[in-house]
Amino acid sequence: MIRFNVPPYTGKEMEYIRQAVENQKICGDGDFTHKCNEWIEKKTGTGKALLTTSCTHATEMAAILCNIKPGDEVIMPSYTFVSTADAFVLRGAKAVFVDVRPDTMNIDENLIEDAITDKTRAIVPVHYAGVSCDMDKILDIAKRHNLLVVEDAAQGIMSEYKGQALGTFGDYGCFSFHETKNFSMGEGGALLIRDKDNIERAEIIREKGTNRAKFFRGQIDKYTWVDAGSSYLPSEMNAAYLYAQLELADEITADRMRSWNMYNDAFEELENKERIERPFIPSDCKHNAHMFYLKCKDLEERSALIKFLGENGILAVFHYIPLHNAPAGKIYGRFHGEDVYTTKESERLVRLPLYYGLKEDEVEYIIGKVKEFYR
Questions:
Q1: Span of 184-193, 222-231, 248-257, 288-297 with lowest mean pLDDT
Q2: CATH code reported for the domain at 249-374
Q3: What's the CATH number for 13-246?
């Protein structure tokens, strides 16, 4: 069976974990945590990066930093993972969903402004498949309406929009290092902070509401509880595992891109015959080969394709039941406007296996079976 995903592994992970254990500093904010933070800062140009226990928690921190309160509204796509909404719902906000663009599956930037009310506090663009939303338009809307922007860049590390790293456009950006992502620490994430004025409070929130980070830097004699917060700091062993992959980030990305390009080139003929649709990458976007998907004719055809591939030893998947159709989505959110594309397009999309170390002959086998299905 060709698995859908295999977590990345470079070979240095266990050695770095051993070093962390021998340093007798495994609770977090040790050498490997700092190395990961510094790597992200250097790679993206963000004001500050803070490793977190998950992208979900990074988004929760962003919601706290945005001072989201009960009764506020936050605009986002419905086609996303539940964490995008959960972070704001936990603060008492209402998730306001708008339709996606059918080409990128990203939030339709032209529908955002009509969804704004006097309760709107923030916009949360989700960079689906590591392909950027139209950040120029989104930032312009946010500026004119005095709204905050939190980028859900869970899938977006190493991706760019007009030469700038995803996660660095909004007030806050959120990365994921879950085992299904390009780089993994099992469970983990990072919060990117654009404006340096917000760093100190972010450190406090991440350290259970204490100013412990300043204490460790020798800036204060003792630390104490100064704000509401939680435990968003990952284990140093998780950071050690991640750093082994960040060191080889370009190699891992190139390996994934090779598989992505093989798929993309091979399925051009099927798209020209209007049998399937391939991912669309706008000219302003540089993507990270996070996923390769096809769009089938409809839900019935997608189900048949997934079944056929499974029978031939290939695990292909779909994801995201649109949040506004979910039971909790009907309680904690509302869809603004018409659902023209979100549900219809989500039912057509199927993801093919793509991971670091996927062999060329395995990609060729998958391609052959997809073409066999369509014959």
A1: 222-231
A2: 3.90.1150.10
A3: 3.40.640.10
Residues 6+ apart with CB under 8 A from 164: 45
Write the DSSP string, 116-173.
Answer: --TTEEEE--B-GGG----HHHHHHHHHHHT-EEEEE-TT-TT-EETTEETTSSSSEE
Treating both helix axes as pointing N-terminal to C-terminal, what angle do 360-374 and 249-266 enclose, rounded to 10 degrees? 30
Percent of the chain with pLDDT over 90: 96
Q: What is the pLDDT of residues 312-331, one digit of tens each?
A: 999 999 989 999 999 999 99
Residue 357 CA neighbour count, 13 Å, CB half = 14
Burial call 61-87: b when 16+ CB within 10 Å, e when fewer: bbbbbbebeeebbbbbbbbbbebbbbb
Beta-carbon contacts of 213 under 8 Å, excluding residues fewer than 6 positions away, are 29, 203, 204, 206, 207
Q: Could you give the CA distance from residue 7 to residue 245 in angstroms, rounded to a whole number?
A: 11
As a whole number of angstroms, the distance between CA 317 and CA 169 comes to: 31
Cβ neighbours of residue 114 closer than 8 Å, sequence gap 6 or more: 336, 337
Rg (CA), the chain: 21
Percentage of the chain exceeding pLDDT 70: 100
Alpha-carbon span 172 to 58, nearest angstrom: 9
What residue ranges do the domains of the chain occupy?
Answer: 13-246, 249-374
